[in-house]
Amino acid sequence: MITKYFTKVFVRFNPFGKDAKTARMILSAIPPKQRTLGTKLQTELLKDSDSAGPIIKVTFKDKKEMEADPLKMTFQELSNYLDTHSRKLRLNKTIQNS
Questions:
Q1: Which of 27, 31, 49, 57 is the most exposed place for a label (fewest CB within 10 A)?
Q2: Nearest alpha-carbon partner for 64 in 88, 46, 98
Q3: Cβ(10)–Cβ(54) under 8 Å?
Q4: At what angle do helices 75-97 and 20-28 cross, to 10 degrees?
Q5: 51-88 pLDDT, tens per residue?
Q6: Whole-prediction pTM
């Protein structure tokens, strides 16, 4: 997963639910160095009685936000989904530096 272009990651999940694995893997995929250099991580833990559903929301350097439901996607699917925009940003950066 290309996390270089993330500025903010918000993850809301039930730690005992089916969505926990995907949510935790997304959080662990962000390198510690990147966490200290500016990527803001926000987590919200849900209880069984909460009405809000799980969500993963990523904001990129160009202010684009992408959302996903960790119940409906595996980590690999979510990674591919987020990488589509990261690849566009990487291509734009490469073109600008040429």
A1: 49
A2: 88
A3: no
A4: 30
A5: 889 999 999 999 999 999 999 999 999 999 999 999 99
A6: 0.89
Domain architecture of the chain: domains with CATH:
6-97 (3.40.30.10)
**What is the number of residues in the chain?**
98
CB 54 within 8 A of CB 21: no
Strand order from edge to edge, sheet including 65-68: 40-45, 6-13, 55-60, 65-68
How many Cβ atoms from other residues are within 10 Å of residue 36's Cβ?
8
Instruction: Name the region of 20 (left: φ>0; alpha: ψ -120 to 50; beta: rest).
Output: alpha
